Amino acid sequence: MEKLRVGVIGCGSIAQHRHLPEYIANKNVELVAVCDINEERVKEVAEKYEVAAYTNYEELLSSGTVDAVSVCTPNYLHAPISIAALNAGLHVLCEKPMSTSKQEAEAMIAAAKESGKKLMIAHNQRFVASHQRARQLIASGEIGKIYSFRTAFGHGGPEGWSVDGKESWFFEKDKAFVGAMGDLGVHKSDLLRYVLGEEITEVGSFVETSAKDFADVDDNAVCVLKTESGIIGTLAASWAYVSKEDNSTIIYGEKAILRLEDDPNNSLVVQYVNGDVVNYQLGKIQSNDAGGQRTTHVINHFVDAVIHNQEPPVPGEEGLKSLAVILAALQSNETKQIVKVSELN
Q: Counting C-beta atoms within 10 Å of the first and last residue's C-beta, which end of the chain has fewer, N or C?
């Protein structure tokens, strides 16, 4: 079988730590090219992987050398580059949040339909073993009716791991569009939709910049969410958790409480109403900390979807639904109203 020829657009931290090494590790992939507007950076990465270097993504897309691309650029470029790639007949794996607006996301989905190519959004929390097990337990009825939840994703901020430190695009509103909510919150809105197996319909939020005085995007957000069946809970996204990362989710059900990535040793703890406790050691969640899961599984799922001509596990439509929750949270913070996700512009 011929290998899938891949190019990676944007050579920052997410490309260097996740996409590039995971493509290299996939036996069905030939990494062909990398692209970044930073000439020095792209040369260095291209030399490391012995691939072609581009500083202009349009040249890469029209080169005829790749079948698929990863879009690992600042958020404001996700939609234009993904759409250009799809229109050029290439499959696209796009980092999250998929775009900066509902309109952009819809245009990406339309471009994928029109071109007949795959569009997948890199929501990796779905592939964490504890999250998958929790979804199964809830879907099977093992936990009974779900009453409430709380989820959090916080760490000290991108300056700790971004290739550009404090100078990173993550802190610039015109490039990032949104801060901790786009970086971390969208992961959790996607996770909740996946684990609970239903849509989030209403959102209320407070979104602040309290920890990073050099940033013009949010670094602390707390949202109240309601699902279609009436489950209520909270989502916190923060770049102000200064010591240890928090990536935990707790789901409160009729027959048990599920604690996901909340215990340092057990990735899933199920506390039953009768006092029984079941601990699952399913491997560490992928994180920026040492010892985190080495692979996100995102790349392998994307490659499999292309090779076997299957629907990707996180298509554009799913990316849009998870983004819509974050857009609703931003609107809620601005209007000081509860926002219905279905009524977003």
A: N
Question: Are the C-beta atoms of 70 and 18 separated by less than 8 Å?
Answer: no
State the Cα–Cα distance between residues 14 and 19, nearest whole angstrom.
7
Residue-wise DSSP of 73-96: S-GGGHHHHHHHHHHTT-EEEEPS
- The model's pLDDT over 72-128, given as tens digits with 9 standing for 90+, comes to 999 999 999 999 999 999 999 999 999 999 999 999 999 999 999 999 999 999 999
> Which one-letter DSSP state was computed for residue 228?
T
Helix/strand/coil for 7: strand
Q: What average pLDDT score do residues 185-203 get? A: 98
In degrees, to the nearest 5, what angle opens at C-alpha 6 toward C-alphas 95 and 309? Answer: 85
d(CA 173, CA 179): 8
What pLDDT does 271 receive?
98
